[in-house]
Amino acid sequence: VRLVESGGGLAQPGGSLRLSCAASGVNVNVSRYGMSWFRQAPGKERELVAGISSIRGLTNYEGFAKGRFIISRDNVKNILYLQMNNLRVEDTAVYYCKAVSVVNYVTSEYWGQGTQVTVSS
Question: What residue spans of the chain are helical by DSSP H?
Answer without folding.
Answer: none
